[in-house]
Design goal:
Layout (H helix, E strand, L loop, with lengths): L7 H17 L3 E9 L2 E8 L5 E8 L14 H17 L7 E9 L2 E9 L7
Parallel strand pairs: 3-4
Antiparallel strand pairs: 1-2, 2-3, 4-5
Amino acid sequence: MKAPQLSPRIGSQAEDVVLQHLQNEGWKLIRKNYRCKLGEIDLILQDDKDVIVFVEVKYRSGLSHGMAQSTVHYGKQNHLIQTALAFIKENNLFQNDFRFDVVTLTPDGIERIENAFSSPHYTF
């Protein structure tokens, strides 16, 4: 059974909570909800080590539908990687270091999975 779709408002609120949390850790927002024909990236930030981090935010009100990070499957990862590459090209950011984090928000708190995935097919 698939997890129910959250309303855009709840998803946006989750992104705001995660963004505030990461900014409190000293991260700087580059872009929120970057969209192109290839997909969308929830948050693009620069961490405290000057790494550009593409963040996928996942919200769950409970664990009855499984762990939120498990929804970032291979297909989703591929779309995020392609979308990130478009952002990198669009902004001429090839000289920077990059990574993909998944951040989950549940009633129990926030969990960040640093460098949650990568792709041998793309070199940044």
